[in-house]
Amino acid sequence: MLAIPRALALAVALGVLTLASAAAHHATPCINANDAYELAAGREQNVGIYPRVYGDVRVAEAVCQHEHRDQRRFTWRHEHPPASTPAPPPPAAPDPTTHPDYGRVYEVAQARSGQPELAARMAADVIGRGAVDAFLRGTDSGVLYGAWACPWQSSACPLAPVYVPPPEPSPPPVARGPQIDPGLQPAWDILRSIQLWDFFRLQPGHDTVNVRFDIDGRFAVGIVSAAYHPRSHTILVNPARRHANPGVLAVTIAHELWHAVSPFGWPRNFDACVVDEVWAFITQGLAWHGIFGHTGPPADDFAWSTWRAYDVLVSHPRGAADFDSDVSDWPDMLSYVLFTRDYVERCAA
Asked: pLDDT, tens digit, for every residue of 51-67?
């Protein structure tokens, strides 16, 4: 082996070490560092010892590093980049049971599943995903164990829309029209068939009046066969007339129907009462004419009493059919009302 002066060998070794330090980012193999150290120590025979013994350079390098792992004088050990610092473990997930919404989420999950353990897992999942509102509405598509559709608010979906029941169907409108006693329907139909009905159907209240057989205190007087009650808007007909001629009953109803639609209103003073009765008897006479025409006096007492208004109407001078409060142009009808029918006393009552 060629002898190398000791001073030169030391200089070469120091140079190798210096270059290795300058290029710290390039690791110096252990076998090279050992050769430099042996050369500097004057043991030239040991230079290259590891490759000679182990043959394979990689094996030689591995053995060299193992044998010199605790020796700081080998620069290869310090020129390797420091081992990377292990990443800190991820922070532990917060306890879902401490979340302010956990209680109500758990209750809803329990309402849906009926199983406490399953409800706890569902609640933890919902809290962890931050899907509280969607879960409580029933619209959380990522919920464990299947979605839960909630069209309306319930214990399983407290944030779903509140159920608003559909409005009840409106009852069918009550057909308007007079409420007529079946026993008086034929008389009512006769009244509706004459021309005078054209006048009645133009007056407010004609289509809501009630007509029925009933008792009234005034019926004790023999000549009173019907009466109008303004408070109930009802025409009462004396039950004693139940089997009378329907046409005569129609004339009687016409008289009371005038009171039901009269423009003079209620209550009335004496003068208004007299005026209203004059027009009622004029209406009664017109109804008789419309139903029976020009006929002589009937033999039946009730029919004759009803016919008398017609007789006064056609047998004496007639005034204007203006239906106002001045009935002085109907003197005979006025006298008939006041004295024959005794309305002086009735209107004064």
From this structure: 887 888 888 888 888 88
